[in-house]
């Protein structure tokens, strides 16, 4: 039957599950009421109807994750009072157990951070843990971590309550309408077409189609790397005297969550070696559907799950359920405006956490649509972070089995994914492997993390929250950078050639710094949004009068390209070319870098002829390369941008000539420790779209008086006019040389919590762990307060004395860099 649909609305939402209804609800709360939600079957019929309904925090390591979660928990507890429809929310509590010291340490590290953001996670004893969940065998448990306010909701009831709230706000929700096409014009979404031939035009299309989103997006050229996987839970028959308000229990050692279900017990599996479902296409007609369970595959995992609650084996099985859930390659959702189409937004790929994070995600997306930018940091969830490689059938097939276990298992720092590797490899990969590289993954790239003395030793893979087996090898790399010279393959860095009549004007409009400089100058700059928040930090090098090279970290590739292309006006002549694959970036750094370079080239590498922040074409062997005298490690050195076809020869020359100067290969662990000693910032790790360059200590690269201004200029001028900020980014050095920092540690000033570290590492030159983080006071944070304050950083419940500084603790005068 053809539905009576409007021909035009402001916003069309495709998908009537938790995410679609949450987005509609939050749009109406912002006064954006001309909303039409179209559901191909019935509300909740995709995956929402069979969700476990857990409203539990897990381990949250970013402010954005905490904001998304706490918004949802609060809304779900209060929504019934607004709509009159029950959500089924019950705050039965949430209990995580730790059965080894690594897990205890991880949870002790993160608990203060989560409490600071409104999540009441606290440690309890094994005895208290057993009292909360008496039917479990907890004899191996070393500690429990409990959130009494967390709990569970009824997924269907919750979604229906959200739908009613959206309708009360003016939204229209229509079932049994299948959207088969997103209409486009001039690179923008303009509407949708339904399977019965109706066309609805609109200003915004929002894809909230769950596991169907990938194929709907692909039809419009939109890249949405997500894949459905089998997800199992078992429900037992009634267990005598089972408390109805039994807390939700999560156990990474069995990859299982446990909760009460109508007198029985639900055992939900997130097993390693999971199975992808329908790699080619999700059936359009699949609704309220189940998948035939694979008893042979899942049987061993069920045995492990039962080992935690052996008494449950004394009762029968009411139901073994298998249904699909969609997962993304990095276990973070896909949210935001798509880079392929303007006015086309997406929220999908929730990694089986659609109920848990649905409200917060809907809130973020609604603000994004209405205000033009998100209200929180979205660098980790922005849909523009992936390339098409991660959406290929082969990639999804290989990566998906790892994801469920990775989501629910034990976590370690520096642990890369094991599947779907070698997506992008430098032309130097084999040489680096022969040199002892252990490769990690970054945005699909294989990149050396550290170097072992032999290739065989690089194959040893263990992970820990404490000092790892490669610690001494990494320290040797670090010392070589500070005392001799290192070579680093930085091919992962994204490189965009920007040229044309208006290239300078466009780049200057984006950049806080002035990039209208002499040919051969390298400019460090931030790009900001209208609120003054970071959108990128990068270098812009003027190669000719109308030709520039933009170099940015690989984690910002998609976002930088999207922002760059969308800033070009219709009447401006600018060509943007992604040169990343064609250029191998080889970095040479250290106090002996000049001596090494002088052996490699006929060019004058002296400080007078080749000053800091300049670029020249030089010869290296048979190659002519662009050499940029710039650093991210705080030492004399150059970035060599080498044609990929000649990179092997250039690398070999560097290695051969470098033997006389103590040259070592260096990996990402060393890059991180070196740059943290120098307090260099990194967008997406230390600063994000909610931070600004003034408070981040990068005011030197903000030219408020440059002609024609730049995006975010007025917001940054207002911040500058307020004087010394109340929030500032500081560098910290721990006084205890044995302690380690990984990020998210709380900062104390004179006994009070004043912030947390964004990132941490070990400063082998400074003699202790180093980190950088924002500190916020109720008064201007002056240099005197920083110098005279008593500072501590909390690590796993212990406060460690620290030194704080506004200036880099290593080479604050830049004498080494400029030598």
TrEMBL record:
GO MF assignments: sarcosine dehydrogenase activity
Positions of the Aminomethyltransferase C-terminal domain: 728-811
Domain annotation FAD dependent oxidoreductase central: ranges: 372-426
EC supergroup of this enzyme: oxidoreductase
One Gene Ontology term, aspect cellular component: cytoplasm
EC number: 1.5.8.3
Entry keyword set: Oxidoreductase
Record keyword Nucleotidyltransferase present: no
SUPFAM superfamilies tied to this protein: Aminomethyltransferase beta-barrel domain, FAD-linked reductases, C-terminal domain, FAD/NAD(P)-binding domain, Folate-binding domain
Segments forming domain FAD dependent oxidoreductase: 12-368
A Pfam family per the record: DAO
Entry keyword Oxidoreductase: yes
Residue span(s) of domain GCVT N-terminal: 428-706
Protein family (similarity comment): Belongs to the GcvT family.
Protein name (record): Sarcosine dehydrogenase
Gene this chain is encoded by: sardh2
